[in-house]
C-alpha cells in the first residue's frame, strides 16, 4: 500500500525536516501517488502513498479528532467496515472513509491492545503527542515489513532498510555474526539483519518508545502467537472441510475490498488457482490474471496458468523471461530487497509485478498456503525420515550404512538420483538440524562452512550457531505429538517471513500492492490445529484445499505436484550466464573482503560447471552476497546501471 518512515529524537529535540525528507524520498516507489510528513516535537513521521482505499481522502500522516494522536500506516485493515460502527457508537468521529482512521480510533479506545481487533496486514507507527510516546506494530504473520535502528540519539523506523541508511551519521556495516546463518539459510530468522545495528520488528510484536519514561531503547512485546496444539474435541472430516471452505471464501472476499482495480498472480498451481477461482466466483466482471514463464519447457508453467485462466474465463496476461533480462534485473532486485536475493523466483516476481502494474493496482497471491496446509514435499519426506530412519539405523549395520553414504558422495551417482536420495535417511544422521535444515534449506551447512569462510572469520565466529535462531521456533510443548504442525509453526515463523518480504518488496518495486488471503489470521489459526491426517493424505499435501476445490478447477491442476515456482537458474548459470557469474566471483573484489576463501570459490565454480546442483546453489548465494556488498557496503553506483534503473528514479538516490 505505502511506505512509512520516521524519527524520534531520544533527547527530545526537534528532528530536522531534511532528515525525514531524505528517508521518504528513497521510498517513493512504494507510494508514487502522494506524500506527507509531520514534525511534532521530538517526532517526525514520513509517508509515501499508493492510493487503494478512499482514494480522494486518506492522506497521511492522519490524526484523531483533536490532533493529539498521529499515524503512518502501511497495509490494509480488512475488517474496518465492521469496526467503524462500533467505534462511532463509542463517540469517535470519522473524517474519512480510510481504514487508517480506524487504527487511530482503536488506539484511542484500547491503547496498545488495538492490534487485537485488527484483521489484515499492517505495519504502523503512532505518535501520541500528549504522552510523548511512539507505538509501532507489525501484523501477526509479517506480511508487511518494519525495520528500525538507533543512530546516535535518534530512533528511526522504515518500511525498507535503505531509508535508514539515509540517516545522518549512519554508515552501513556488515553484521558479521549473522553470516553463518545467512550462508546456511539465505536469511536471518531473528530480529537481526545483515546490516549491523539494523533490526526488524518480528511478526506479532509491537514496540514502544516512551520519552517521558526516558526510554533509550525500544520496549518490544509479543502480542500474538500461533497455537499448534491438538484440539480437545476434533471435528469430523466433513466439518473441517466445511469450516475451511467458509473461512477461505470469507478471506478472499474481504481481500477484494478496494477502490481500485484488482488482479491475481496465477502460476497454474493449486494455491494461486484456488484464489483465482474463488475471486472469479465472487466478482461479476472477468478478472485479470498475470503469469511469468520461460522458453525452457521443463520450467514453464504457463500452459497450466492458461488452462486455469480459460477455465474461470479470466483475461490472462503473461511475460516470458530470458537469461539476459534475468541477470540484468538482479542488481535492482537486490536493491529493492535490501539484502541478498535468496530465491531466483524474486526476479520472476519482479517482472510479473511490472506486468500487472499496466492494468491493476492490487493483486492477490497464493503465498502462505504451503506453510499453513503442508503443501511442500519436504514435510512428508521429513515425517518419513524421522519415522523410518531409526529403524534403518537399528537393523542395518554401520559399515553398510557408511558404504551407502560413500556411494552418494562418490560423484558416480547421476545428479537427479543423487538429489532424491540425499534427502533420505540414507544420507543424513538422526539430528533434526541435519534431517530438516541441512536437507532442505542449507546451501552451506554449518559443518561445511570452514571450507567456505576464511580462517580469521571462523575464529571470530566460532561460538555462533547457524541454526540457533530457527530452533527457537521449534516448540517442544503444546504439540501433543503433532510433529507436522510443529514443522509448520517453525516455517511460519522463519521461512515464510522471508517469502513475505520478497512478496512485499517485489510488488512495491512496481508500485502495486499484493495481498495474501491464505494468511488471514483467522484461517491460519483454524488450520494450525487441524490434525495432520486432514493436511496430508496419500503422500499428498493440502488435502482440505483439494477437497474444497474439487469440481471447481481442472483435474490436472488439482492433482499436479508442487513445482515451487521453478526458474531455469541451473542451466542459465552453467551456460549463457556462466561468464558473468565467474567474472563477479573471481575478479578479486570478493577476495579483498577477507571473508570467503578464493580457492573454495574456484572449486565451487568448477563443480557447478560440471553439473553439481548443490554447487550451483552455492554460486547463486555467493553471487547475490557479492552484488549486495557492492551495492550497500561499497556504495558502488556502477553496479546499478542505467538499464537496471530504467523506470525507477528512486534507485538513483541510493
Please outline what is shown here.
The chain is α+β, with helices and mostly antiparallel strands. Helices cover 43% and strands 14% of the residues.
How would you describe what is shown here?
The protein has 654 residues and is an alpha+beta fold. 43% of the residues lie in helices and 14% in strands. Strands 2-3-1-9-8-10 form a six-stranded antiparallel β-sheet. Helix 8 (302-311) links the parallel strand 14 and strand 15. It is globular and about 75 Å long. The two termini are 22 Å apart. The model is unreliable at 643-654 (pLDDT under 50).
Question: Structural class given helices, strands, pairing?
Answer: alpha+beta
General shape: globular
Major sheet characteristics: 6 strands, antiparallel
Number of strands: 17
Summarize the amount of helix as a percent range: 40-55%
Please list the strands of the largest sheet in the order they lie side by side: 2-3-1-9-8-10
Strand content: 5-15%
User: Mean of residue pLDDT?
Assistant: 91
Radius of gyration: 25 Å
C-alpha end-to-end distance = 22 Å
Low-confidence stretches: 643-654
Number of helices, counting only DSSP H or I runs of 4 residues or more: 29
Amino acid at each position: 500500500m505505502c511506505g512509512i518512515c520516521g524519527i524520534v529524537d531520544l533527547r527530545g529535540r526537534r528532528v530536522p525536516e531534511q532528515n525525514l525528507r531524505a528517508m521518504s524520498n528513497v521510498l517513493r516507489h512504494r507510494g508514487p501517488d502522494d506524500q506527507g510528513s509531520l514534525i511534532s516535537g521530538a517526532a517526525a513521521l514520513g509517508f509515501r502513498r499508493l492510493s487503494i482505499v478512499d482514494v480522494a481522502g486518506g492522506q497521511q500522516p492522519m490524526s484523531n479528532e483533536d490532533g493529539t494522536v498521529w499515524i503512518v500506516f502501511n497495509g490494509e485493515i480488512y475488517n474496518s467496515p465492521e469496526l467503524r460502527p462500533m467505534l462511532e457508537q463509542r463517540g469517535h468521529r470519522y473524517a474519512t472513509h480510510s481504514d487508517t482512521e480506524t487504527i487511530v480510533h482503536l488506539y484511542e479506545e484500547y491503547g496498545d491492545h488495538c492490534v487485537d481487533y485488527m484483521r489484515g496486514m499492517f505495519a504502523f507507527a503512532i505518535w501520541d503527542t500528549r504522552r510523548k510516546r511512539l507505538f509501532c506494530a507489525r501484523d501477526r504473520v509479517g506480511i508487511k515489513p518494519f525495520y528500525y535502528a538507533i543512530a546516535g540519539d535518534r530512533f528511526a523506523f522504515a518500511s525498507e532498510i535503505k531509508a535508514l541508511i539515509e540517516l545522518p551519521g549512519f554508515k552501513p556495516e556488515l553484521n558479521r555474526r549473522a553470516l553463518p546463518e545467512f550462508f546456511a539459510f539465505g536469511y536471518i530468522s531473528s530480529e537481526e539483519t545483515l546490516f549491523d545495528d539494523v533490526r526488524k520488528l518480528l511478526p506479532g510484536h509491537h514496540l514502544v518508545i516512551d520519552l517521558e519514561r526516558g526510554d533509550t531503547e525500544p520496549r518490544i512485546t509479543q502480542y500474538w502467537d500461533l497455537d499448534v496444539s491438538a484440539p480437545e474435541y476434533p471435528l469430523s472430516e466433513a466439518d473441517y472441510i466445511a469450516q475451511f471452505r467458509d473461512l477461505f471464501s470469507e478471506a478472499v472476499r474481504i481481500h477484494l475490498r478496494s477502490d481500485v482495480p484488482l488482479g491475481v498472480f496465477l502460476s497454474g498451481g493449486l494455491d494461486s488457482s484456488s484464489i483465482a477461482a474463488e475471486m472469479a466466483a465472487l466478482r461479476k466482471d472477468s478478472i485479470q490474471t498475470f503469469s511469468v514463464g520461460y522458453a525452457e519447457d521443463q520450467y514453464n508453467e504457463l500452459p497450466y496458468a492458461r488452462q486455469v485462466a480459460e477455465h474461470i474465463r479470466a483475461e490472462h496476461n503473461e511475460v516470458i523471461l530470458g537469461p539476459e533480462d534475468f541477470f540484468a534485473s538482479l542488481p535492482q532486485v537486490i536493491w529493492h530487497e535490501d539484502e541478498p536475493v535468496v530465491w531466483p523466483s524474486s526476479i520472476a516476481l519482479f517482472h510479473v509485478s511490472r506486468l500487472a502494474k499496466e492494468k491493476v493496482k492490487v493483486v492477490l497471491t497464493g503465498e502462505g498456503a504451503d506453510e499453513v496446509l503442508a503443501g511442500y514435499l519436504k514435510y512428508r519426506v521429513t515425517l518419513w525420515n524421522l519415522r523410518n530412519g531409526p529403524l534403518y539405523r537399528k537393523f542395518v549395520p554401520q559399515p553398510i550404512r557408511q558404504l551407502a553414504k560413500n556411494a552418494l558422495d562418490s560423484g558416480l551417482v547421476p545428479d537427479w538420483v543423487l538429489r532424491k536420495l540425499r534427502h533420505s535417511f540414507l544420507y543424513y544422521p538422526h539430528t533434526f538440524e541435519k534431517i530438516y535444515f541441512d536437507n532442505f534449506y542449507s546451501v552451506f551447512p554449518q559443518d561445511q562452512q570452514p571450507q567456505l569462510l576464511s580462517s580469521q572469520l571462523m575464529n571470530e565466529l566460532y561460538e555462533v550457531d547457524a541454526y540457533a535462531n530457527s530452533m527457537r521456533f521449534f516448540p517442544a510443548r503444546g504439540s501433543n505429538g503433532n510433529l507436522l504442525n510443529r514443522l509448520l509453526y517453525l516455517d511460519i515463523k522463519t521461512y515464510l517471513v522471508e517469502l513475505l518480504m520478497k512478496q512485499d518488496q517485489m510488488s512495491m518495486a512496481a508500485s502495486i500492492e499484493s495481498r495474501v488471503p491464505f494468511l488471514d489470521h483467522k484461517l491460519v489459526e483454524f488450520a494450525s490445529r487441524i490434525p495432520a491426517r486432514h493436511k496430508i493424505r496419500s503422500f499428498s499435501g493440502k488435502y482440505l484445499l483439494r477437497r474444497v476445490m474439487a469440481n471447481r478447477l481442472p483435474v490436472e491442476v488439482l492433482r499436479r505436484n508442487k513445482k515451487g515456482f521453478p526458474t531455469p537458474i541451473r542451466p542459465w548459470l552453467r551456460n549463457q550466464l556462466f561468464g558473468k557469474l565467474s567474472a563477479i566471483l573471481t575478479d578479486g573484489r570478493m577476495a579483498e573482503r577477507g571473508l570467503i576463501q578464493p580457492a573454495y570459490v574456484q572449486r565451487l565454480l568448477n563443480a557447478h560447471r560440471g553439473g553439481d546442483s548443490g554447487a550451483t546453489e552455492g554460486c547463486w548465494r555467493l553471487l547475490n552476497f557479492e552484488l549486495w556488498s557492492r551495492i550497500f557496503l561499497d556504495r558502488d553506483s556502477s553496479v546499478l546501471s542505467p538499464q537496471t534503473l530504467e523506470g525507477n528514479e528512486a534507485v538513483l538516490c541510493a
